[in-house]
Every structure is written in structure tokens, then in C-alpha cells.
User: Which sequence fits this backbone?
DNA sequence: TAGGCATTTAGGTAAATGCCTAAATTTGTT
DNA sequence: AACAAATTTAGGCATTTACCTAAATGCCTA
């Protein structure tokens, strides 16, 4: 885990919000959009962009960055790319800050 | 604790390094510079700037940012401003990431 | 294989950050 | 009061980040 890379990918309010939303999709996304939701996949790019009220390309890049930093996991299925949280990485980050920062 | 503010103040390699150095000043700063060292004060701006190999004004601003974000505590004494880590805030950050991110 | 939908990549502008030097301020000392 | 030492503030240039729109790509289905 590259601490600086991870921290940079967290240093933006929208990206922090995305992590919150993905923690409990049913609490933050309209039920219709989650019709095919499964925890193993997550939520697709355009639904997240809509929730963020930002353009799809911008959010697409945000999500990719967070996946590179390992905070999210991407899964391509059919036309869609789904993103979910990487809980292990998030706990690892908490540990790293607790013990090594 | 303002999470985004704290994360932003950590999103720079030099500022991360400063936190590491202040964790164990004797391991990172020349002994002469720590002649008057005390854990309750920390290390002064110019010693930190020297260690970082950066200009004093740049490091002065970094340190102030980190103090505003509560990661560091500043103490002015005589001509010097000393900075030390705020261990409580760092642990609080780790907890926040663990439980709320 | 043509068309359509979701996503990604490219490319551009505005704002933020990184870091510097010079000038101003603070505080202790003649 | 005047000078010196440490720090802070101001101002500037270069790089990065934040966003957007337009164009390209990937993956369906007719």
C-alpha cells in the first residue's frame, strides 16, 4: 500500500463521499438504480456520477484513481463497470496510520 | 476533526516525512540541534527545514498547516517556534478511518 | 456489421498546491 | 533605540488537480 497515493486519492470531498455512499448503497442510491445490485459488484459509474452531480468522465477518472490506490475494486460486466469498496485496504490504511504515521 | 483538512495536510511526501521525523527526533536530527530538546516542545522550524532540505518559509507554512489541521502542536518560546506531534489527533484519525470512512 | 449505450481517453481552462526569494514581523540583546 | 536571529507573510512562477466537453473505445443486439 502506497500511503501517499492512497492519501491523495482521499484528498477530495467528492471521493470521500463516494466511499461513504458505497458503504451502504441502499441508503444513498435510488432503489431503481440498484435493481441488479450485488455486494460483490457494487455500483456502476453512471449511477455514482449522477449521485455526485458531476460529469461521467470526471467520476470515471476518480473511480479509476481510487481503484489504482486500492481503495475500490472495479469489475467490468457487460457494458458496465461496477465499483465497490475494498474494506481490507481501508482497514489496512487505518492500521498504518495508527501504527506507523 | 475536519477529515478532509487533515487528509489534505497529509497529502505531500515532505509533510508525511516531518511526522515521521518528529516521532523520534533523536533518530533523525543531529544531536547538536537537539541540545535543548524536550518532548513537550518538539523541534524548531529551522531544524526541520534543514532536515527537509527546503526553504524555511516553505516549511514554516507546512508546519502551520499541519498545526491548523491539529496534526502538530506549536509552541512559541523565545525566538523559536517548536513543533511536536499531536498523538491524540493521529490516533483519532486512525479511528475515524477505521470506523467511519 | 450497424447502431446504441456505458465507459474511457483526450484535451482544455481555472483553481489549487509546491516552493522559491524578498520583505515584514517578533523577540531577545546591546 | 537599534541590531540580530528566527519566523512569518507576501508575491510570483511552475506544476498538479478539478472539472468540463468532444471524441474514441468496448460490448451488446438487431
Assistant:
Amino acid at each position: 500500500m502506497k500511503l501517499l497515493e492512497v492519501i491523495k486519492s482521499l484528498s477530495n470531498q467528492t471521493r470521500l463521499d463516494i466511499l461513504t455512499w458505497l458503504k451502504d448503497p441502499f441508503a444513498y442510491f435510488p432503489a431503481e438504480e440498484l435493481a441488479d445490485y450485488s455486494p460483490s459488484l457494487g455500483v456502476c459509474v453512471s449511477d455514482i456520477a449522477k449521485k455526485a452531480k458531476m460529469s461521467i468522465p470526471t467520476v470515471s477518472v476518480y473511480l479509476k484513481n481510487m481503484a489504482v490506490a486500492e481503495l475500490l475494486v472495479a469489475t467490468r460486466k457487460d457494458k458496465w463497470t461496477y465499483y465497490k469498496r475494498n474494506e481490507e485496504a481501508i482497514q489496512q490504511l487505518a492500521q498504518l496510520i495508527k501504527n506507523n504515521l
